[in-house]
Amino acid sequence: MSLLAALTVCACLSLLLSEMPVVLVWLATPSVLLLGARMILAESRRPGRELVIDAGGGVCLDGHRLDGPRLHWRGPIVRLDWREGRRRHTLLWWPDTLPAAARRELRLASAALTPPPRAETVAP
């Protein structure tokens, strides 16, 4: 939430520092603040999710088993992809949404999801 608030403030400042006519800036700034507040409120009402990874590589999200889950690590950002029928779903964890202890636990549990490399991909 704090990042959304900071982005809202930065958006208002960028309007003020732009070369837009002053009248348009003062008309646009309240709408940017209103949209930012609306996004912050919507994110604060979103319920938490429960992710369980068992030792056999099975993944349950909020009590439902996921088909074909894959974890992607890009530095501190973690993405979980899975399919439900024909639809793809994604969850994204930023450093401010996942505490360090939970991030470490997720990294250790994700080893169960990673398939071993194929023999032909290994150099002789």
Protein model, in words:
- The protein has 124 residues and is an alpha+beta fold.
- The chain folds into 2 domains: 44 residues; 65 residues, no CATH class.
- Helices cover 40% and strands 25% of the residues.
- The strands form 2 sheets. Strands 1-2-3 form a 3-stranded antiparallel sheet, with no helix packed on it.
- β2 and β3 form a beta hairpin.
- The mean pLDDT is 84.
Instruction: List how many beta strands DSSP finds.
Output: 6
The helix/strand order is HHEEEEEEH
Low-confidence segments: none
Largest sheet: 3 strands, antiparallel
- Rg, rounded, reads 21 Å
**Which structural class matches the secondary elements?**
alpha+beta
Looking at the structure, what is the overall shape?
A: elongated
The overall number of domains is 2
Q: What is the helix content? A: 40-55%
Q: What do the pLDDT scores average to? A: 84
The number of helical elements comes to 3
**End-to-end separation:** 50 Å
Question: Biggest sheet: strands side by side, in what order?
Answer: 1-2-3
Strand content: 25-35%
